[in-house]
Amino acid sequence: MIRIYNTLTQQKEELRPIEPGKVRIYVCGMTVYDYCHLGHARVLVAFDVITRYLRHRGYEVNYVRNITDIDDKILRRADENGEPYTELTDRMIKAMHEDEARLGVLSPDDEPRATAFIDEIIAMIHKLISGGHAYAADNGDVYFAVDSFDDYGKLSKKKLEDLLAGARVDVQEAKRSPADFALWKAAKAGEVSWPSPWGDGRPGWHIECSVMSTACLGDTFDIHGGGPDLLFPHHENEIAQSECATGHTFVNTWMHAGAIRVNKEKMSKSLGNFFTIREIMEKYPAEVVRYFLVSSHYRSQVDYSEENLAEAGRTLTRLYHALRGIVPAKVADVPETEYDQRFAEAMDDDFNTAGAIAVLHAVANEINQHRRDGREEEAKRSAAVLVRLGGVLGLLQQDPEAFFQADTGSELSAEDIETLIQARADARKAKNFAEADRIRDDLAEKGIVLDDSREGTSWRRG
User: Fold this and answer.
1) How far apart are the C-alpha atoms of 82 and 88, rounded to whole Å?
2) SS (H, E, C) 288-350
3) Which partner for 427 in 93, 197, 234, 436 could form a disulfide, CB atoms 3.0-4.6 Å apart?
């Protein structure tokens, strides 16, 4: 039985899909005006693991993650760059896909873009106006009337009267109430726009996700996820407009990933304390970054630091060391073990990846013990279990040598290192041990660790 913490009810609940055996998931994706930062990676990896595990448990998953490709920030950045907004969004989408691929994030089943749903957005807005839940203002904007939805605040536990207290409305806005939010924004001079019954304009951010999610997954679906900063007002507004438009419960389970923190503050572009995914992967292998994110429970806050990433590299290295120099048995030939059961127990408890990773280390310890005892066949079977369970988390799928020798910007190439290792071997053969030690020390200073064994010398980037 899989139990998931539901932000809406603030408790863990058994997963009961609307359609038995099938799970429909929608996750708010990127607003593509800049490169993705580590906070985005947190959400991408968290829901990638959740989707992988549900499939591992036999569920048929329809995973939808949208792209916001029209937004104030996009238009502002495109104007700053002096380029069409479509060139900016296309470039950032390409970069996002590159970052995802390096992190081992599988592509969603559907990746709708807001600009492809303009007609559907207009249709939902029209339905909301007809139902008395929205109104066209004199300035060409269309607003959702928050007081028309009695359950407003049920996700965030905020009360409408508290939101109204002390709220201010910009003098240029034509809202009836400070809490009302834009469904359609009238176009400014020279701004990209689409025709509508209320004049040329473009959709507001919140309505985009309501339309894309229901268009792809139906009026009611199983799970809606996103980052912690989206709970209010974005997800709250999604609920209000969706349930008023369809007359049905919007989502059964709400899931929110924890924030990345730097010096006890949330990582974000607005605070200027963010690191892009690609900047971090210039210094650390992509799988180390993924391990760093997966090693904490998806709802917990993660503290970013160089030391924490380095520690993630060291612990992941221990797992790969257990697999080094061994050919695992075929995964399909190894039946379920107690480790599979312990792994499932951890993941069934609200996708407890920290507990699941503890199981991986237990398997690695068993492999090492088998090898010390000379039980190679048992070691191969245990290695197959480690690879199988690691794969559910998107880990340990590389050849160990490829992991150890991954180049993250070192001044030495693999060919350079091999040449120096051969020079060291020649020096040792000639009994010039001082030269051999000098080469080893020089490599160590450059982050290259040598491992001598009866089979020869292997190396890894430290």
Assistant:
1) 10
2) HHHHHHHCCCCCCCEECCHHHHHHHHHHHHHHHHHHCCCCCCCHHHCCCCHHHHHHHHHHHEC
3) 436
The contacts of residue 158 (CB under 8 Å, 6+ apart) are 232, 236
Annotated binding site: 28, 209, 234, 238, 269
Neighbouring-strand partners of residue 253? 223
Task: Report pLDDT digits (tens) over 155-185.
Answer: 999 988 878 775 665 545 689 999 999 999 9
pTM for the predicted model, two decimal places: 0.90
Output the known binding site for Zn(2+). 28, 209, 234, 238
Of 386, 381, 446, the C-alpha closest to 416 is 446
